[in-house]
Amino acid sequence: MSNTLTQRKHAPFRYDIVGSFLRPQALKSAREAFAKNEISAAQLTEVEDACIRNLVEKQLEAGLKSVTDGEFRRSYWHLDFMWGFDGIEHNTMDQGYIFHDEETRPDSARVCGKIKFTAHPFIHHFKFLKEVVGNRALVRQTIPAPSQFFAELVRADNEEHLNRIYPNREELYADLTQAYHDFILALYNEGCRHLQLDDCTWGMLCDSNFAKYFADAAGGLEQLQKLYLKLNNEAIADLPADLVVTTHVCRGNYHSTWASSGGYEPVSKTLFGKENVHGYYLEFDDDRSGDFRPLKEVSEEKLVVLGLITSKYPTPEDKSTIIARIKEASQYVPLERLCLSTQCGFASTEEGNILTEEEQWKKINLVREIAEEVWG
Known about the structure:
Oligomer: single chain
Shape: globular
Radius of gyration: 20 Å
Structural class: alpha/beta
Order of helices and strands: HEHHEHEEHEHHHEHHHEHEEHEH
Helix content: 40-55%
CATH class: Alpha Beta
């Protein structure tokens, strides 16, 4: 295969990551000390800065072309972002998210006023990362998708608060997508050229158990898919042409457990055919994700990053098996439009998955080795 196909100059890249990394012990200790009022916010930031600098160097040493800050300043992959907007407050639910084997901490985000972007801590976080990386790699920002934000706002008792502030849902949709759009443009102005929307909502719709609930509670699965599509597409409409927007469709990733299962078939026509992103990071690390046939719905020249290497467990995958699966996927999306990554990040929350940092980097190295063998 020619170098024009194997050597990409924009995201996604042939060997890639989803974004989050295991928190080093120094960072865990600092966050615990801050929670106990033993160190100041400024002291915590100093530790975060040092850990992020170290992480960047490790990512570059691993040969990654697109790097993140590992989400080291966050407790959650999604809630910390939501709390950064005007009109959103941090609240605690009676119950956390329910995963296959565990329950998460019960934090949440709910509406307390009109949603608006005026300033957001993630802008400053990105600026720091961009300064550290410089021109050595592409700097990626990961945030939850608008559909994920909406799903949090209507979760359990949160919906009562939402209805008081936004009795007209169309006004909510307009404010939410505008806040996203304004945030994205502010991020772009700081140099961001790769934005990743992390999204569990589509994975939930693929799960027959969750789908039954959504069909009853939301007026039908088809209408809910249309709403998710509307929110995501309107938030990323009319952006600069050189900003690459991708999405990661997640099945849940908490302490090596999962939340949903089921193939992509129920959402493939909408998600793969109509969401206006440049590429999809998709989980295919075990049987819970189904087969590759739904990929036939991927429209136009969109790229697909196959998440075939699990980030949940340390056991290395067999190279020949992964290569065979990439070949199988190429029956539905041409090989030149495929890439390889871990199925998710290594620490969607600060608890992290059950493997060591050394095992984490071995996984990333395995992704690179396989990609270089497949694409050159």
